[in-house]
Amino acid sequence: MKTNQQEKPNDLLLVIDMQNIYITGQEWACLDTEGAAERINRIIDTGVCSDVIFTRFIASSSPDGVWRNYNIKYDHINQNAWANEMLPQFESALKQYPLYTKGVYSSLAIPEVLSAAKKADRVVVTGVVAECCVLSTVFALIDAGIYVIYLTDGVSGLDKEKEAATELTLSGLAPLHVSMMTVDEYLSSMKSDSKQD
Predict the structure, then answer these.
(1) Is residue 37 assigned to a domain?
(2) What CATH number should be reported for the domain holding residue 43?
(3) pLDDT along the chain (197 residues), means of 10
(4) Range of the domain at 128
(5) Does 94 fall in a domain?
(6) Which helix (H) or strand (E) covers residue 40, if one does?
(7) Does the residue 1 lie in any domain?
(8) From the CB of residue 11, how many other CB atoms can be counted at a distance below 10 Å?
């Protein structure tokens, strides 16, 4: 994280697992996946982040341990190609930015994501599911010594209680390891940094 407050941070925007299975009406629907998608696209459109990476969860074809049980339980979802596709709202962005696949919860299990995160000053975390893949990724980022900006309305969980529990857990790591803010607050902070340059 930059110590010189006059410089605009070199931020990586990480968009975690924004796939069709998490939209309204689907088996794993999150509270506000569509709203989070709109706000994430706002960040992308402003160009304030130096880099953008998308990840998706695709169940491993050769799972280890308890992941074998996962594949058995959720085979009907794993075999549903549409459910695993990225949201159409990101069609334009995905032509410009990379999409990496993982078979575990943490996006940092992807070597390219870890490498990009280590080059950034901060990683701006968005996506789904707040209490699962997002939280796992945040802990992995912190363990790797990478500062996290957690966008509360750019992340969606299965319900309000789980979203709140995730934020409460992360609040114990703020502000040393993580800052929590809304998308508007983040964009405003980046504008302020630009004015100071």
Answers:
(1) yes
(2) 3.40.50.850
(3) 64 98 98 98 97 98 97 97 98 98 98 98 98 98 98 98 98 98 97 65
(4) 11-192
(5) yes
(6) helix 33-46
(7) no
(8) 22
